[in-house]
């Protein structure tokens, strides 16, 4: 029988999400990979419960997380009905819809039909009455933004979600989405973009906009799917994400990116941190970033990232040295066509 650590809230720092009343842990856990039916349930359980014991209250999912799609929500639902049943009101549970989930014209993108049907399915898989945050997972260039945002507003007004969010939208569509949601009296709580030392696209317009509009930011893939660790310094290991050549393409582990990784690692070591720890701390350096959203395949990786919170400040000299090495590595694979 699981008993939560009594000191869990003393071990985490929390930040306000934009201008809302919601505070998120500075590090949140994403269940994109390694939490599905094809993975070890005992390992997933250990990662989630140990994370909660360290003050991670936000667990981020999507309808297509697994593998197979949907099974990460089922895994988390199982934990919610057993180990975490008495802690539901202490948790922020988010899910998303936007990518392919079922065949036919209503199984992906941003229509009202798809988004609300997907949310209902997610609630069933997680055995929940509501999620805390429901996201449009990606901008749909073929559906009016008014329809997509109207579906998010319905999710909130119906009580199926407490807050609305968007993911991987460019600055122009983010501004428009926030304006539309205001008409429904539903604030745009949060944006979830990819952001890392080698993927800095949000600095060019989006991050200043989020700060200006009082919208929170939770940055996913701060470790560039593992590239900003020691894993790939000697090549592509068998069984790694890059070896599978899926969302993390083998071509991303190229000479230019590895040169940057090695130089950044040297800076991290001078700071007394691992490269992964510095990468997380660097993402959190900007006050507009509410939380860094990490993934993991084992608890030790989460634990290492949590230790990044011991040193999240940077000197001006360190930031200049990092800027010389933190070049764009063409890692943003989530930007939809026409997404500005």
Topology (elements, then pairings):
Layout: E1 14-16, E2 23-25, E3 27-30, H1 41-53, E4 58-60, H2 71-81, E5 92-97, H3 112-126, E6 131-136, H4 145-157, E7 161-167, H5 171-183, E8 188-192, H6 206-213, E9 216-220, H7 241-244, H8 255-270, H9 275-283, E10 291-294, H10 299-306, H11 316-325
Parallel strand pairs: 3-4, 3-10, 4-5, 5-6, 6-7, 7-8, 8-9, 9-10
Antiparallel strand pairs: 1-2
Helix pairs in contact: 3-4, 4-5, 5-6, 8-9, 8-11
Q: Describe it for me?
A:
The chain is of the alpha/beta class. It has a single domain, classed as Alpha-Beta Barrel (TIM Barrel), CATH 3.20.20.100. The protein is built from 11 helices and 10 strands. The strands form 2 sheets. Strands 3-4-5-6-7-8-9-10 form an 8-stranded parallel barrel, surrounded by 5 helices. It has a two-stranded antiparallel ribbon with strand order 1-2. α1 links the parallel β3 (27-30) and β4 (58-60). α4 (145-157) packs across α5 and α5 runs parallel beside α6 (206-213). The mean pLDDT is 94.
